[in-house]
Amino acid sequence: xxxxxxxxxxxxxxxxxxxxxxxxxxxxxxxxxxxxxxxxxxxxxxxxxxxxxxxxxxxxxxxxxxxxxxxxxxxxxxxxxxxxxxxxxxxxxxxxxxxxxxxxxxxxxxxxxxxxxxxxxxxxxxxxxxxx
Length: 132
Description:
Layout: E1 2-8, H1 22-41, E2 46-51, E3 54-56, E4 65-75, E5 79-88, E6 94-105, H2 123-131
Antiparallel strand pairs: 1-4, 2-6, 3-6, 4-5, 5-6
């Protein structure tokens, strides 16, 4: 799994127990999944359709740095299924996992649109192909 984003846990990210608020982590996961999908599918119009069971296994506290990892499970016709792990960068403990996040590629009409992708592509490879 590739870890793409790091977040610094600040006071506004905490719950009443002074640990990382689960809702904040889920918002970060949703944003990361959207960004990842937009880059993979080369379309700004991508929405979250589904998140499977969310498994919290540890937490973080103010000052910790967490990192968010995303990987592709499968490419559908108009969707992309991802999984996610959030871990504490300092301790390497997993904070939360989400086995399936389904993102849907949309057309200009707001309806699901086939994306034609079959494998993970990296921007550096796309840029190298354009230069040839």
